[in-house]
Every structure is written in C-alpha cells, then in structure tokens.
C-alpha cells in the first residue's frame, strides 16, 4: 500500500492549493519563483477545475494543466492532483438537474456556489467517473504527480427522490426486511409502520418531531454515499497509479462524516483545520483535530488546508497575529503532521473566497503574512529530517464516535445545551490544559495501549463498545466516563434503565432515576468545591463504589455526582473547566500517566514526537520552561541546558 | 347526554396513554400488574394505532387490540378508546398525497412525524371515517370501553389547494356574497378587491404584510375545519354507542382552536397540560388552564395528558422534583378534574418521544418517579368518594375569547410585545396570587353569576360582548378592563375612536389620543407607586370618572392611567405583578369578593371544591396555614384544628 | 422640463396620500372640509386603486375617481395622481401567474399583500401600461392634476425564469460576450465558467457562498428593471401631459435601488421617510435622507411620505410626541423640501396598515395629533413664500454610491458588523453633530463646489471615482476617507494591494498588510485619546504622510491609525462618536468650513436655506441660541436680537 512516507521521503510537505486558472499565465512563473523562495515543495492542483477541463459536455482541455504540471516539476515542486468533482460546471446542472441536491423542504441547490452535486445521482457519478478516468490517464505517468486528492470536503446532503431510492437500497442492505426496519426504527410509535419499501423516505419536512432512528440512519447513509463517491474515484485513479497514495480532505468537527470509516479507505489521512485566531482555545481546538486525524491515520498525516491569515466565513474574520501561523503549523507537526498546507497559495481577487487569506495575500510578497510564510518554510525544512515519519506518544485515549454524535444531537432530546462537539471539546481541553497528550480512539477499538481512557459522551454505545470498556477496566485501565453515555444502543433504542447496565455495574450505580439538565448558565455544587454545569443526574449508588463526591444543595443534595469503583470513574455533570482539568490530572496521576513535562507553565504546550520534545508557547509574553538535561533546539541550532526561554508564540524543537 | 359522571361513578380516573403496540406482548401483563399496584383505573388505547390496525389499505388487524381490551377489562381497568386518525400510516400519504398539509410557502408536510393530515382533504376524511366506523363497530359492546377519545391535539393548518376550496366555501357561508367579503376584509385598501371567488386563497406567502381579516378568518376556518373532523368521527362513534361520552384532548393555550365552540360539541371536556417544572409560575399556568377547562366543561373535566416527569420538546427539559407531580395532580382535582392521566404509561424506548417521561420511566418500577405515581394513585383513591362530581366555587370571571387572540396577535400591530397569552397569564397570575378563584368566561356569556369580571385584553370585541359588559356593570357587577380592549369589531375593523364608544362611556374616557407601547423592559410611573409595563395610553377623561390614577413623568405626565367610574375600572397599562395583584385585591374587596381563605401565605393556593377545602403548598420549606374550625384531612385521616402545617409541596384536603 | 416649482408656485405642498376608496362617499366631503381647515393643498390619489379602476380584466371604472378629482379641484386642492401599478388586483395573479415574483428559494409571492409583481414580467408590464395609458388619457386635462406619481416604493426582487431571461439580456448588454462575463465574475474560481448563456441564472439557492459579482450584478439588474418599469409608465403619462412633472417615491436607505440613476429619470425627486420617534438620532437619520434627496434633486424636493404619528411595522411602534411631527416636518423644509406629505390622510380602519397613523387618526378631528397637523399647516403657509424654491447651502460633501453598498454588504466578507448604511449613518451623524451641513454626492461627480469631502466607505470605487478623488485633493479639496474604501473595482475585483494604489499614494500608505476587524463591542486605542470601533488595519506608511495618529496597545501598537498627507486624511477605524465628530470638526476648520452657527447647543440643528436660518431644537427643555444681529422669526412674526430661546421641539425660521 502506498503511504505518506512515499511522498514525504524525509521532508515535510509545505505548500497548498494552487488555483492558477484564476490568473493569466504570466503570473504562473512568478508564483513558482515565490514558492521556491518560500520553501514550497508541494502544491494541490485542480480542486475546482472541472469547468476548465470540460468547458462543454465531453470536451477535454488539459493543455493548461499540462503546462502547470510541467512547471511544477521543473521547479522541484510535487503535485497533489485533485479530481475536480466537488464543483460541477454550470452545464452539468442545467443539462442534468438530477445531479442537484434537494433539501428536506424540497428546495434544490443550484450552481453558482460549489458542492451542488447529489451523492446519489447516477448521472453525477457517471460524469465524475469519466473526468476522473481521463485525468488519471493523462497524468498517471507525470513525474510531478505525488498524491491523489479526491473531491473536496465531502459534506452534502440530499433528500430528493434519487437519494430516497438509494436510501431504501441502503436500508434493505442494513435491515434485510421491512419488519426489521420497523423494529429498529420503533415505527410502532406514532403509527409510522412501513408496509412497503417505497414508503420509506429521507427525513423530509414533517409537522412535528421526526423519527430519530430514521434521522440517524440518514446520517449514516449520507456518510456512506459520500464514501461511495470517494471510493469510486479512488478506484479509478488507483488503477492508473497503484503506486501513488490517495486521500481526501475531511472536516471532522464540522461536516460529520464517519471519519473512522473513511480513514480505512484512504492511503493518507488529511484534514482541513481552521481554528479561530481570536479563540483563546483555538490552539486546543487544533490539537483535538490533530489528535483525531493522527489517530485515524495511525501515523503521520497531512494538514491539507489551513489559512495563512483570516478566513471569510465567520461573522468577524480576524487575521493571524504575527507568529501564530508558524506556531500553529509547528503544533500540527508536533502532533504528527508531515504536511503543512494552506488554502490557498495566492489569494483570489474574485469569487466567493476573495477575502479568505492566501500564502501570498493581496498585500503581495512584501506583506507581513507572506514574510512569515517564508520563515515557516525555512523552519520546516530545518526540522524535517528529524521529524518526518516519526510517531507521537500519547497515554490517554479520548473516545469518540460519529454515530454517537448523530444519535445525541437530535431534536426532542433532554437538553439542547449538551452539544456533542462542545462536550468533546470541553473534555479534551481539560486534558490539554493538564499537559496530557491524547489519542482519539473509536470506542470499539483496542484500548490496552493507553493507561487511561476518557469518554466525554457516547450517547450511543454499541454492545461491543460497552464490552470493550468493561474489559479495559478489568484489564487495569483507568476509565473516566462523562454523563449521557450508554443511553441508546446501535438502533437508537434506549437501554433498559436509561443507561447500559454493564456501565452501571462498572461504576456502582443501581438506578438512574432522572436526568436533571441545567438551564444555560446554571450550575450545581459538588463536594470538594467542584461546580457542575449543563447537566446533573439523580443517581442511586449500589454500594460498590469506593469513592463518591456528592451533590451539595438543591434537589440532588447528598446524591452521588462522581463515583469511582476501582479504576472506573463516572462524572454525572460537566465540571467547570479548572475542576475538570484538576480531576483528570488527579485520575491520570493515579493511573501512572504523567504530563509531558512537569511544571509546565499554563501557556506552554509540550508534545513528544519521535525522540523530539516540542515546546509551543501560546502566549505573547516571555516564558521560561524547565527542561532537565541538555538539548539542541533544531530551530535555532542552539544548545539549551536546564531551561528554555520562549518569546511570543515561541517554539522550541528539542533533540536530545 | 352521556357525561363524565357516567364514567367516573364516584371515582377519579387515574392512568394515561397506553401504547403497548410498542412492546412485545409479554410486557403487557407486567404493565397491567404494575397499573393495578399504582391504582390505575383507566387507560387510553389506540391514539397512534392506525398503521397497526390498517397496515395496508383496507386491511384490518384488531386482534392485538382485542387482547388489550380484554386484558384491561379483566383487571378492572376502563378503556378510553381513541380513534387513530391523528397519525395516518405512511401508505396514506404515499397513495394519497392530497391528504398531506401544505404550509404558507407551499411546502408539504410528510409522514415520518405525526399529524400530517389535512383537515380539508376529502380523502383523509373518508379514510378516517372508515377506520373510525370499524373501530366503533368492533368495540361498541366491549365492557372495557368507557369513553371515546377522538384524534389527538387537533392543531394542523393547511394552505393547499383543497383547503383553499374549502376556505372559499366557508367564506361563502359566512359572507354570502363576494361584496360582503370585500367589505369585511377591507380589500379596498392595497387593491385587494376580489372579483371572483376563485381568487380567494388562504394567506399564503406575500411580499409584505398580509390582510389581517383574511388571516383572522383563516384561523376561524381552521378551527372550524378541525372541528368538522372531530364531529364527523364523534357522530360515527355516537351512532354505535349513544350511551358513551366523547371527548378530544385540546391544548387551549397553544394550538389555538376556539375551545368554547369545541366544548359545545363534546360530552366531556379534556385537556393536555404541561407546565414547565422549572417555571416559578408553573402552578399558576396550570390553574389557568384548569379554570379554563372547567369553565368550558361547566363541571368536572378530564386532565387527559400531563407528564409524570420531564417532557422532551423544551430547550432544556427539567424533571418534576419529588412531590411536584402529586401536588400538581391534586391541584387539578381541586380545580375540578375528575380524571388525572398522563402521557404515557410506559416511557418509550424508541421514537420521537423516548425522552418524554412516563408513569413507568426508563428507571423502571423502582424509579423515584414511579414510586410517586403509586403514592398519587393511593391519594386519589382516598379522596375520590368525597370529591368526584362536585363543583368548584369561583367569584371572579376572567374573560377570554380565541377570536380576540387571533385578531390581536398579528403582524403589523402597535407592539409585538403584547402577546395575548402573556397578558391573559399576567392578569390571571395576579388574581391567583391574591387567592381569588376564577372562572374563565366567554365575553358574550352571562356574567351575573360572578361578582367581578376581569378583561385582560379583548382586542376584538363583538357588539354583543360590548353590550354584555355594559349590562353587567349596570347590574352592579365590578368590571376591570385592561388596555387594548374593544379595539376592533367582529370583522377586525377598528372601532371609531380606536376603542368601542360604549366602553369609553363606561369608563369615562372622552378621547383615546394615542397608544404609547413601551419598549421591552421600559416602565412608566403611575400615581400611588404603581409602575406600568408594556403599554401606556394618552387618554382624555370626560369628567365622569370618579377615581383616577395619573401617569407621572414622561410624555403622559398627569394624564389618566387608571380610571374608575362606578364599578367599572380601566387600566391603560400592565401594572407590575405586585401592583396588579394589589389593585385586583382592592377591587375585589370593594366588590365583596373575599380570598378563599384570609391570611394565606404566598406559597399556598387554596381552592374550594364541593364542601372541601384544598390547600396546596407550592414551596419547598414548611408553612403553616390558619384554618378556622376543625377539619378532617382526607389524605391523612388526621383531624386538624385551627391550623394546618404543610411540608414541601404539601397538600391537605380538608372536609368539615 | 417641468419642475417642482411649476407645482408649488411659491407654496409648500402639504397633504398626503388620500385613499378614500376605503370609505363611503359621504365621508369624502368631511375629508375635504377637514383638509381645508388643516391647510392641506395637495393630495395623492390612486396609489392602490387598480382593483377599483379595473375590477375585472379590461373593465374601467373611473367614475369614483372623477368625483374625487372634481371634489379636490373645487376645494383648491391639487392632486398628485398615482399609477396604481404597485398592487395588481387578485385577478392579475390568478389569470397571469407569470406576473408574480419568485424568491431565491423558488417560493412565489402571491396577492393578499402588495407589490406582488415581477419587474420582468412582460404580462405585468403590458397590463400596467394599459391602465396607465387609460388613466393618463382620462385625467390629462383635469385641472386638479398637478404631478404624476408612478407606482410606489419600487423594491421587489424576482429570481424566476422570466427574470432569469431578462437578466441574461441585461448581462449580454453589459458584457457583450460570455467570455467577458466569465472574466468579470471570476468564474474560473469554483468551476463556475459558463459555456452557454442559458446557464446563467439569478443568484438562486446554493449550497455555500454565492458568486459575489453575480449577486452585485443582480442588484444592478434589479434596480435597472424597476427603473424600466418606471420609465415605461413615465413615458406614457408624459405623452399625455408633457407639461406636468413625474416622480416616484423612493426609500433610499432601505430598498436600495440606485437613486442616482433614478433621479436622472425623474422630473421631481421625492422620498418616503420614517425615522423612529424613539431613536435619539432619528432627526439625524432624517437629515441624512433629506440631504441625499436634495442632492439627487439638485434643488427642492418632495417629502412624499412620512407618518403623522406611529408606524406599524416596527417591533414596538411609538407615536410622535407633541411637537415632533412639526419639528421634523420643518427640518425637511430647512433641508430643501417644498412638499411635506404624509401617508396617509385618514387612518385606515381595516387592512394591513390600520395601525399606521394618519393625519386624521382614529381619535378623529379632536385627536391631539390632528390638532398638531392643523398647526403645522398654518406654519407651512406662513413660511412658504419666503422659502419655496430656494436652495440650501452646504460646504461638505458626503460620498455615497449604491453599487459600493451592494458590493460591500455581501456574505463572505471580512466582517458582518460593518454595514454600509450604518457606516454612512455614523459619519453623517458626526458631521451633523458638528453642525456642518452636508450634501450627498456621487463619487464620480464634480466635488469642486465643496471644500471638504467625506467618504464613509466606498468599498467599490471605479477608476473614474478614484481619479476624481485624487484630482479633488490636488485641486485643494480636503478629503477624509474611511476604511474599506477602494477595495474592489467596478467588477468587484479586489484592487492589487487590497486598496486602490492611487488612494494609497494619496494618503501615504505603502502596504495594507491585514484588515483587523473588531468583534462586536471591542475597541482599539489610538493616540490622542481616540478609540476606534468595528475595524482596524495593519498599515505601513510610505513616509510621505505629514501627520499620523498611531494605534496604542494590542497587535497594532505603534502602527498608523490615521494618516494625513496634505489635505487628504485616511481613517483606518471607526472612531467613537464624539471622537469622530471632533476629528471632522478639526479637519473642517482646517479646510475653512465653519459650522452653520458658532456656539450652537448640542440639541440645536441649524440650517441655512436661501436667506433664512432655520433653528431646530431636538430637545424637550428650553435652550437659548446666540444669533448675532437682528432677525424676524417667520413663524411668530417676532423680532429677535442676539439670541433666540427655543422651547420643547421649538423651531425658529429667521429672516434677516
């Protein structure tokens, strides 16, 4: 199997999306000259080139792309070549309206933006396959080609008739019989029993709440259909270039496809990552996505897209302050990235993203941001030989599953305040602040490589996953489990008792009497000065728990809030940030998990990759870090002994 | 005419919706065993059973229901049998798309939720009649059957073409000629004059404000069409079982059908009531709905649905704290309920309401909530012989009319802050806090049985209602009238002077110069320390008022805010809660209306039903109530003399 | 060319929309009697009369209008006659669904409101022309007719198929070839290149961001199509009455047609103006609209619609306090209005605007508001001979362009907080508070008549406009330019460097490194105690600026916030209100621009029109104004020397 290492060959890929079809060809030479000056060694071509390659049905215009591929190659820049199927040309939609997606209310999404394709459209798939075939045939032997990039940020939904037909096929495959579907979806309630497959639809507009199992399956179906689109194109390019790896860029905390499944189908896992420069926990958000991506990749991965400066889709789009792009880029490397790429190389002057920054912005080569892009290129080249291909060590597993997310964040739930992504972020943030490096792990996967496992919320928990957790604790693992876990089974059916009985036994809970979700801003007191937010629970212990923190005051006064039974902890509320950090640090210490480095200042993130120690300073002042022993800082070449001083957004990459 | 008494026969009905088609039959036996243990004597079957009874067009499967009816009967549990017409099976929508409702923008509401039926669809009506016919024929003679429950929470709108045709028919009936419609709707404005009946439509999407009289008539039409659906099914079941009463469960403060008209067509009036357990005035909200329902029933009524714990449709769904379900259930009995039922018996494990609590929740029989359900069953059984069938005494009438509501709460009005339901709630709350029991009365109905009448807001006031108010005051009644009353006539036409001239004469108002609605949060000062909210008025008195409280400060300084002329009071703002309570207590005292009991603590609600005095404590501490004389507390059997002590959510039912 | 002077003939027109078709004819006589008592000399008839004139296709009923025209004439009241084409009768929509507009999601806007016509519909245009033709023919010779009023508040959009076809035609005319369109729209990005004209659509629903140049052109197209509708009707009436002027009432800060272009096609410029009586800067908002309208008219103009009291489309609709209607009406006269008219004469009792005030409100002739209407009529008659037809003097030009607005306020921009209208308002407010009278000027127009020019924000700046600004400064003009100016060219293409290089050279800016938009509520400090809001910029000066105020603190510490080079100022943030006022006053003083009067109290607005000095007091207390010399107050006839005392909302009109 081709791998990312085949592409990097000891380097860190550096570059980004290059969309030169926006510019006259005379600019291309300047682009390449500036790329070389910036240390760019990889560009992504063709992401939105369908209308250029196939301006009219069946035509092919590859000449411009030939020239670009050659130009890249002549300049020693590798090409990540994208299939252009994320944005069909206007003629596709006009001649083939069946390729256009339809929303739950029946509105069609038209061309004039992007991603206006239906994953279920046979016509779309046929046209996408044809252009992929020709593209792959054309460039299979081109020496610039290093990696295939299929489509872009797969994320569309379709509720139209062709999608409905495919949904039925998918459901037949899942359930076999209509009876099984009726059972799984609980259609006996509200008189929804299907008597004929043709009655089954995507969750379209209803008068009141939709069937949640239908909604869940539609999310699963959508992920699978998009994955089919991916694998169809992957198989085509693989046929032409079996030696080259294939990837697609995902947005794991946004679009919500099942990235675990997707990663299995990719040779290289790549991700798009856009933390808000104005978010004080932007770096932690980045760390979470990086941990997740590395875990899916089971090794080095690609940061396929980030922004050198501002994006343009937030309400207020702040640029990256001086040093931040470098800091966050090196953070990605610390957490396993062997490619640091931006969308896009040269900022557009026209179109919907003309205010999204580029590596070469409107301010031009003298612009502050571009000067930083150059500095980063040099830094990456300096550390690459020491880091490329190496592994990140993490003792803590954070458990995450998209199906649990889809099942949890539905209408008609106990509280709309308990967003899955927000809970995942809160727990990861607490671990990050405790300087504990994490992997993100699927709940059915082997946990024995981690001393400690943390479950922010797994609303849906399969039998296999429940058994996995129990076995992990039996095997000596330390498990910390947040509320709202083990509520439903794989079919979104509430577990007897409202919480999986295996989990209850694991934590020493006899009865879960009631959920007590909290109003926004409300808190609940717990012994030991801990305050809970968002949620609380009326629990009855079974007497086997060895340690308990009780609620204080209010309706739950005296009832257990936190239980420990052996190495299994249950936390029935979301502790405030400091309290959650301290609790997790305490549990980690008990589990023998140490911070990456003792005595780290709050603002400094430390990560070990291979034999290197990355120190990343997220503050703007100056800070000193005690680092026992003597190291060489690969970025400066300096030898450091005992302590390292980091300035604003400073980074040290220490080799023994 | 069959009545509720025929069903209760000295008991209080206790139980709820039982949807056992969700469960394997082996659970049914457990259900019935647990019901008996909890004192359940009535269950509602079949509410969402259409797809079970008629899985394919024209088929009938009654076997499962036969077994359930028999099982209930064998266990001494009466059955409220529902027609299943609120949620047609998927095949109905697929084979008959004309049965599906369409919104104002043209979107169709599909199956996959519930209530996806058009009241105007001839096909729907035919199919609903057929299954109702067969259901009634099947169980007419079944000994378990006690009451018919038609459909469920009628509340759907339809703007589609068949509804448009029915709307035109309804309008022809109302207005006779197109000229009369044009006059009533004021179509001379904005060039809306209709020249042909076929031009008349439901209020669909427009560029700017819709014709308000058209919107009002569409609300009336919708209520009438849904009522036609009800009466059609009622007539069918009545033909089979003329001896059994018929009801349907309404949501009077939500869906907005004209419950006065509906009550006339029902044998038994029943209601669904879901106050927010977290709302400090949840109990008063309950009291208002209970007063309204009792007034429509003109005697005992059914609480058809409440929740034993949390619901699942709020943003944050709080459970009922220990004791609250019992307190609120007994409050309903105090205010006239002879049936206390829950949705639903056993909490669902699947479907859209799986997080809506049940009498038997996910926690099972040992769950705290279920234990309380058992206690409540015992309490109800204890007091039933003393209370069932008896009347509630109330001296104060609160006037309410749905047509006034529909006319008031439209776009293009003076203030969007003055929601009708909120005003009704605010005035009722002030009376409730003053320990004054209220009936809710239609403004055209006889008021002479009440010493005091309160009009929160009757934006639309018919001539007959205006005359009724005048006659009431002439006859010695005390009338208190809030702002925004008598503004429009039955056709939504503004009364000359902006307020009915009869009312102005009644209160001593010469001229209503301007409305001065207040911005959210703003207040206006009035003499006597009273502060007004939401609204104020620039009024000119005619010199006949005997008492006046003037505005202080601002643009209205010195102008009358409150006027009294004889026993007629006009209040041109919404006083802050304490001030409104005090004002109404003062007026009541003047009218010879006393609180239910003197010296009641704030947290204790007192209601007299039959010869009994209910004391309901809405607080969590302990409170002592002075009760002159000696009574027996029917709940405890204890004799109490002079004073009663009530604990957290405590209730006493005192017999002389 | 006929002009407004031909209508006013030394008078100020006073009156408003008269929609007597809402009332029985017996009321018409009362109307006219009350109009005369109030000094009304002009009424607008027919705005919404299509269904009355043409109740069925092709019929004509003019008799009622004949009687009204005669009645007006007999009473010396001139008639502004409206074509009734803003609200087609129901039969038009039913028989000709192609006349109905369609929104971006495909929803049709139906009759039942108003303005449900598509500017692009050939059928609509044909029917509108036919009724206009007959109306003009009928009344061409009527002695009451003084002015034509075409349609009403043109503002509708249409995304339907016929509009799409016209859009393509418009685009062909603009661009000639599809290649040119592709280039202008930057369709090479996101694979949007059009290969066939038929692929080009209005900006309908897309999956993600729309092409911004397409959106901009659609706004231009919409303005042009509506203007075609206007000119088509104008040409018809002009043929019948070449001696009479033609106007249409625009809403320049709301609907967003290009009022510069429109004004060129009108004989008289008229405006609808509805400041919020509760807005502390309502008067300034009025002043801005008045300045803009006067500037478009290049002389006297009509206030076609205002409200005598409350409107009904805000969330909370406050009435006008005593004196405010007079004050704001006289403000309009001060700023050039020769007509002060209201919507509408008699307040409706029915329909969607029954809670919109009238000159004769629901309270009737004795109502406070109507009494004020009478007083105003007398005031206007008193000052008219001295003011009608005269010019307003203003030394400051505020530059404004609708195309810049449309280009700026799109999705996908750096900050959604920087609304164009809000910025325009903020800058004008600062000038107004500094007592500087302003004209509003198109950026390509001659600026040499103004000593100072202010650019709040011209996101899109054409080459011609940029050259105009440079030439203005070279010629000695003082230019003050706000941020976000000169960003894109006429095709919405970002200028190299992110800001027009001519502007950068003008202000001494070498490089615009980054935009730093601010989060809502955030501020940034600048030297001299100035604080900026909404926006900041990372600028690098080129050393030619003569004066600089630097940012203090934060990421931009020490970088230039405000630059002056000669008489050209650049302000890279929005200073807080007082600071902006002071800055502009300082710059004005340097440019030799003096306030209208020295030492004016904050609450007093002063404007010079012809030889008169208007003093307008926007406060409720009493205030004294120093006015050197001796004047006669035309409103009171009093002679004032040295100082004038103004009471609540007081006005003085001082003649030398």
TrEMBL record, chains A, B, C:
Transmembrane segments: none annotated. Keywords: Glycosidase, Hydrolase. It holds the Pfam family Glyco_hydro_42. It catalyses: Hydrolysis of terminal non-reducing beta-D-galactose residues in beta-D-galactosides. This is Beta-galactosidase. Residues 394-593 form the Beta-galactosidase trimerisation domain. InterPro entries: Beta_galactosidase_C, Beta_galactosidase_Trimer, Class_I_gatase-like, GH, Glyco_hydro_42, Glyco_hydro_42_N, Glyco_hydro_b. Its EC number is 3.2.1.23. Residues 17-382 form the Glycoside hydrolase family 42 N-terminal domain. Belongs to the glycosyl hydrolase 42 family. It is an enzyme of class 3 (hydrolase).
């Amino acid at each position: 199997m081709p791998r990312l290492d085949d592409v990097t060959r000891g380097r860190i890929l550096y570059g980004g999306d290059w969309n030169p079809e926006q510019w006259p060809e005379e600019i291309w030479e300047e682009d390449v000259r500036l790329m070389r000056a910036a240390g760019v060694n990889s560009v992504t071509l063709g992401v939105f080139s369908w209308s250029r390659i196939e301006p009219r049905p069946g035509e092919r215009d590859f000449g411009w792309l030939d020239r670009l591929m050659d130009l890249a190659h002549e300049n020693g820049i590798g090409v990540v070549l994208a299939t252009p199927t994320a944005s069909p040309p206007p003629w596709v939609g006009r001649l083939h309206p069946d390729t256009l997606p339809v929303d739950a209310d029946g509105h069609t999404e038209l061309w004039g933006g992007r991603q206006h394709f239906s994953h279920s459209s046979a016509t779309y798939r046929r046209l996408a396959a044809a252009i992929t075939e020709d593209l792959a045939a054309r460039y299979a032997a081109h020496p610039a080609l290093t990696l295939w990039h299929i489509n872009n940020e797969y994320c569309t939904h379709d509720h139209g008739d062709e999608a409905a037909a495919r949904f039925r096929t998918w459901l037949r495959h899942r359930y076999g019989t209509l009876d099984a579907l009726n059972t799984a979806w609980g259609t006996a309630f509200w008189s929804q029993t299907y008597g004929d497959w043709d009655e089954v639809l995507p969750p379209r507009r209803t008068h009141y709440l939709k069937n949640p199992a239908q909604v869940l399956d539609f999310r699963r179906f959508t992920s699978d259909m998009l994955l089919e689109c991916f694998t169809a194109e992957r198989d085509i390019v693989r046929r032409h270039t079996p030696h080259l790896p294939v990837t697609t860029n995902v947005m794991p905390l946004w679009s919500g496809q099942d990235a675990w499944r997707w990663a299995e189908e990719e040779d290289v896992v790549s991700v798009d990552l856009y933390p808000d420069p104005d978010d004080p926990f932007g770096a932690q958000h980045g760390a979470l996505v990086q941990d997740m991506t590395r875990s899916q990749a089971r090794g080095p991965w690609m940061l396929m897209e980030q922004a050198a400066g501002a994006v343009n889709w937030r309400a207020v789009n702040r640029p990256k302050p001086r040093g931040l792009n470098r800091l966050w880029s090196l953070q990605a490397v610390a957490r396993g990235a062997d490619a640091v790429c931006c969308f896009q190389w040269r900022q557009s002057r026209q179109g919907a993203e003309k205010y999204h920054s580029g590596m070469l912005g409107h301010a031009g080569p003298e612009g502050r941001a571009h000067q930083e892009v150059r500095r980063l290129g040099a830094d990456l080249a300096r550390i690459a030989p020491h880091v490329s291909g190496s592994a990140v060590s993490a003792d803590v597993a954070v458990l995450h599953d998209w199906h649990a997310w889809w099942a949890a964040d539905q209408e008609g739930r106990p509280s709309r305040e308990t967003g899955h992504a927000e809970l995942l972020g809160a727990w990861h943030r607490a671990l990050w602040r405790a300087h504990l490096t994490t992997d993100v792990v699927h709940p059915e996967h082997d946990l024995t490589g981690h001393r400690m496992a943390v479950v922010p919320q797994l609303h849906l928990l399969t039998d296999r996953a429940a058994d996995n957790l129990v076995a992990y604790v039996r095997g000596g693992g330390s498990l910390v489990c947040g509320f709202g876990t083990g509520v439903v089974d794989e079919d979104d059916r509430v577990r007897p008792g409202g919480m999986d009985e295996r989990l209850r036994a694991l934590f020493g809970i006899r009865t879960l009497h009631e959920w007590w979700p909290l109003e926004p801003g409300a808190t609940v007191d717990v012994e030991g000065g801990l305050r809970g937010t968002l949620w609380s629970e009326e629990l009855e212990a079974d007497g086997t728990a060895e340690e308990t923190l009780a609620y204080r005051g209010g309706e739950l006064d005296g009832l257990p809030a936190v239980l420990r039974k052996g190495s299994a902890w249950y936390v029935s509320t979301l502790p405030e940030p400091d309290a959650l950090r301290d609790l997790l640090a305490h549990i980690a210490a008990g589990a023998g998990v140490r911070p990456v480095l003792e005595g780290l200042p709050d603002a400094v993130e430390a990560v070990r990759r291979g034999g290197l120690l990355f120190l990343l300073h997220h503050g703007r002042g100056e800070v000193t870090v005690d680092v026992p022993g003597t190291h060489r800082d690969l970025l400066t070449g300096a030898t450091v002994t005992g302590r390292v001083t980091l300035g604003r957004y400073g980074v040290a990459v220490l080799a023994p």
